[in-house]
Amino acid sequence: MASSLASIQFTPTPASFPSLAPRLRFKAPSNIPVNHDPLNPITFLLRAALVYPNKLALAHPDTPNPVAYTFSIWAQRTQNLAYALLKAGLNHGDRVAVIAPNTPLIADAHYGVLAARGILVPINTRLKPHEVAYILEHSGASIILVDYEYKHLVGSTKARVIVSNDTGRAGDPYEEFLTQGRAYSNERGWQGLEAEPDENTGAVLCYTSGTTGRPKGVITTLRGSYLAAIGNAFEGQINKTSTYLWILPMFHASGWTYPWANVFAFATQITLRTVNFTHIWNHLIHSGVTHYCGAPTVQIGIINDPLARKLPPSRPVTAIIAGAAPTAHLIAELEKKGIKPVHVYGLTETYGPFTRNYEQDAWANLSLDERSRFMARQGHAFATAGEVRVVFQSENSDVLEDVPADGKTLGEIVTRGNIVMKEYFNDPAATSKAFKGGSFRTGDLAVIHPDGSVAIMDRSKDIIISGGENASSLAIEQELASHPHVLEVSVVARNHIKWGERPMAFVTLHPQHTSKWKGRHHEFEKDLKAHAKPRLPGFACPEWVEVVPELPKTSTGKILKTELRKVVAKL
Amino acid sequence: MASSLASIQFTPTPASFPSLAPRLRFKAPSNIPVNHDPLNPITFLLRAALVYPNKLALAHPDTPNPVAYTFSIWAQRTQNLAYALLKAGLNHGDRVAVIAPNTPLIADAHYGVLAARGILVPINTRLKPHEVAYILEHSGASIILVDYEYKHLVGSTKARVIVSNDTGRAGDPYEEFLTQGRAYSNERGWQGLEAEPDENTGAVLCYTSGTTGRPKGVITTLRGSYLAAIGNAFEGQINKTSTYLWILPMFHASGWTYPWANVFAFATQITLRTVNFTHIWNHLIHSGVTHYCGAPTVQIGIINDPLARKLPPSRPVTAIIAGAAPTAHLIAELEKKGIKPVHVYGLTETYGPFTRNYEQDAWANLSLDERSRFMARQGHAFATAGEVRVVFQSENSDVLEDVPADGKTLGEIVTRGNIVMKEYFNDPAATSKAFKGGSFRTGDLAVIHPDGSVAIMDRSKDIIISGGENASSLAIEQELASHPHVLEVSVVARNHIKWGERPMAFVTLHPQHTSKWKGRHHEFEKDLKAHAKPRLPGFACPEWVEVVPELPKTSTGKILKTELRKVVAKL
């Protein structure tokens, strides 16, 4: 076992230990055929607890009160949580909110809430109190599980509030809650809990971070969660020997279903309360980490950390990247450190990733620059996803028509199938708009290449119309990011007297190169424009470049172009 | 690519090449929710053809007319087959029989028949004409795809018969049939084929080899095939870099769903018409084979072949073993050759494997003999399977009760869930008997150990009642097989004047040791009894040992205890 995890000194609470010969299965629902098991990701944990009861399932090391749970004990704790929720009056389909960073609490909730046949509502801890209040109100959550550090986000509420001090020790209110659940179960165990007979029942209610307007509540199903998790486990080639490091927040689209995917694969999970690069490298080096997920902005922090080093080839690490395409620079830096980047794409409405960039043998012979252009594509629908299409809709027609697979014609990415959300909660108008034409409309504008891979050009609102040409801000960003001194870049439209619109680039510089350009931003602008000229058509070259200390971002790390547009509007 | 496959000189027929920009998806069924894709294993091939069109999908090397197909071409050929079947008048749910050894024909049928929304009926080529006639009659197959070598198995029939000469070349009647399908499609492609809207529709109709009575027709579903295939891909850790060698007949429980599992994982498949150990070793050594399935009898042939050698650790090979537990000798010999044995268990009614022996870290410290005892257990339900239970049924009760998990109490293995058959075709009485108590009754007698793993003791009829004790013939066989000179062994009950029954062992000797014991079988009997004495309770020690040149077997390689019992009855 990994040295830094093996050193955890911890004994779980007495209520965490299962009875001697637990039956690790639910009470079978009646009146369903012998050949039908409703798909449900909780079954992954019951199976892991049966097959590898003593394997380390969940470690939470970098806190004053570190904890570590085996599959057997973790399963019992999620069962306790289910009974505690039932004792607290939870009814079938009731919502349970959880407000927590990556901790055992939110990991537990991904099983315990589903086992009680409730719907989990993970809430982004970076939201403002009034935003949290809106979600609590809209979801109608009757029980709130909250980490001590985020208690202030819960205002006055009629819901029952359970606080976790994140200790795992007796005396912690959350532990008391679990202990009550264990007592309430009266040792009926899993057999006292009814399996959900309908796999199309809601599982999780995640709110989109919505850069504009009110957040929308995305309802996913048990079937979709099961299939998406298996898809992620397979695409990541996660297995029993894997160790997954939680960098991506679990509240973000249910951690892209990885709380279940890792358990399906019998992998060990490590939770970190914060994105702390020292801790991350400590675990990459000492804890045998093999997989983690994160947006490019986080990946940039990882490769630039002073502790960063080349990892031994005996323990290859896979970085699953979504949120934006990895740049050539990022790909090269990750690979230098022995980390294999895998580019995936998705939205909260698609359980996180539903496409993957599939590496082709022929790319091995390409230059980094050429290879990174291929790797920046969002690629093909992944293992258990349905189709991915790029479409347009003629006026007065309901039919979505495919754009030609020419790598040029812009259309909207749509998908359908088992890993598309069920609906927006209590919002039939938004649901029917999102499903217009019989597919889920992502709102992302893309081309489809002759090989069937899709490449996002922009969100519809991010296209820059320069001299009558459509310039993709993403494509411009991709090229500008290949400048070795650029750390991050975002491009938006700025009005232009002659061309209508012209691209303006906001750039942060690499820490190593900041001093070089200090007081010489104008020279840097010239340098970057010269870099862009051979790489981009004239209408897409940035007319203006502004070096800034940092870019405005959403709570989930997405760059807020709306803020940049406000800046531009004032120029 | 593997040298022995790369040397294949072959150009597919013109009809095998897809049109320039094929849409690799079916016409979407109408009136199903946006978030529902009926699970269907054909989607694996469409996805592989999209993501890795030029990767080698299927090679058929060791024939006068070797062939090799990429995913793109193979997908087109299965589409041609679907249209050819529709042109021949196939209606939804009609049965299509295939009588073939492991060839592209039967691999194609696993996709083409399903794409035409027919039900595939794979027929064992080792059956007698009257047995085949029964299956053709009972299944009501309206179209028969037959390999040239097995034409004689098709008697007079009203069904349309298509013969394959297994050439893949123009002029072959099967190729003509595919070409007609391509013409009939009129280039409507996959979009001209309706996806099956109901995932619980029948997919395959496999007949059990039934050692007694008429074979029963097992109907599996699309959903079950999809989930079982993913389970097998995951359990085998098959991926894009894998090469699967077809030793197990594909007609046997649809090749345990591997025709789909391999494609899900983007693996290459190699088909062999016969179990030829020279060819098998050629491919293990030269074609980069990573996976194969087979019963212990076949595995014994592999390890004893003169070509057998240690394979390089750089390309680990996994042998998936079912049909009977691997013995200590077999495990040791496979491991010596760099082949990792994985023991799985299942029946035709469970899509092949539904349990797996999960290796535990602690076993690494055990002696081979102790370790093989653990590895002989059938283990736990696997990835996408439902529960596995060992039960008894009290008189006058419908409820199946679990036996204690003590490793001692005998009960019947039952299971339920997504990888249990839908029904016995046209046999509601047999179906309801098999599902009595709300689970599928395997008829296998087993114990359940405290760790939840199951271990088969016997088929109910194979228990030997010796002095009032239940002796498991399997447990006795396992111990006798640990004698280094024993190749295979089968134990049946023989009447005994004092004890009621006593075990009698039929043994074949290892080729290297046959000469040693020639004319000295009585000495060998003493030697084997002495070997058994410290290993088995007195009532389980064989009273009689008979050395035979070979053991009687079914067409699928199972030892026919019924034949041995006939021998015993005459003694």
TrEMBL record, chains A, B:
Residues 476-558 form the AMP-binding enzyme C-terminal domain. SUPFAM superfamilies: Acetyl-CoA synthetase-like (SSF56801). GO terms for molecular function: ligase activity. It holds the Pfam family AMP-binding. Residues 47-425 form the AMP-dependent synthetase/ligase domain. One of its GO terms (biological process) is fatty acid metabolic process. It comes from the Eukaryota. Belongs to the ATP-dependent AMP-binding enzyme family. This is AMP-dependent synthetase and ligase.
